[in-house]
Amino acid sequence: MANKAKLHPRNxxxxxxxxxxxxxETPELEAFTTRNPRGxxxxxxxxxxxVRMLNRALLKAHYNVDFWDIPKxxxxxxxxxRVDYIxxxxxxxxxxxxxAIPTGSQIKALDIGTGASLVYPLTGQAxxxxxxxxxxxxxxxxxxxxxxxELNGLTIPxxxxxxxxxxxxxxIKPKDAFHxxxxxxxxxxxxxxxxKGTQRKWANLGKGRSKALNFGGQNAELWCPGGExxxxxxMVEQSRDYAKQCMWFTSLVSKKDNITTLxxxxxxxxxxxxxxxxxxxxxxxxxxxxxxxxxxxxxALFIGKSKS
Length: 308
Known about the structure:
This protein is an alpha/beta fold. Helix content is 38%, strand content 17%. It contains 10 helices and 9 strands. It has helices at residues 19-25, 48-63, 79-94, 119-128, 139-152, 191-204, 219-222, 227-239, 258-268, 296-307, and strands at residues 33-35, 41-43, 108-112, 131-136, 158-160, 178-183, 246-252, 273-281, 284-292. The chain has a 7-stranded mixed sheet with strand order 5-4-3-6-7-9-8, with helices on both faces. Strands 1-2 form a two-stranded antiparallel sheet. Helix 1 packs across helix 2 (48-63), helix 3 packs across helix 4 (119-128) and helix 8 packs parallel to helix 9. The termini are far apart.
């Protein structure tokens, strides 16, 4: 098994993939399993069907997800990296809870752009028992997420954002209270840049040019006008209206160079604190930005109320 020592210490995939266990849980994976030059079991990561089957096996073996699939053309997420975000968010909440990770359904998380895969609610519920609400602007993604919930007997509220320029408006209701929001924003500024970025990835994998977008991905998943900076800046601006209803607002930031600009935006906003949390995953380093309008005392009280 390949060592992935840079993943979060609590990440179940820290030591790589146990293909014996995965194939036992999902026998269909065997047809996609090959051997690398060292003789270790692996899959062809250039094959979208193989990646989808690996995800299905991982979610079943590690997160008790009996059914998982996504429609053709939607983003197929890498499970270990996505779960890392969940674990680092748990650490963030623990910081306001005497370093104890708060678990259970009283912890509420809002997943902005939950996607067809529903990967964050599935893994977050399994790891910590948190309650998730999924949000998306895409009807197809929500239909897929709903099917995953129904076929696994899960109750995960799903809300459609009908105003593409709004992030929280119409989604966070007056009586809602969330401990955190999370988001994997579209990071390209245009369809052309998304296509070129994907072609570079395919070339690095030895696949050459391809019309496929990163093992799938609808436009809203991959790009928006102004790209990642514009999206996160809009999120920061709009979060102010829900300052008392959410403890931590967070978003992944794919491009390290964007952090400097986003820090300036946060410093101009009327927030109490922000953090940049680095996540090292194998050869890749990613990060998320977190900001809050609550003082440390208010955050402790916010978590305390959820226990009562």
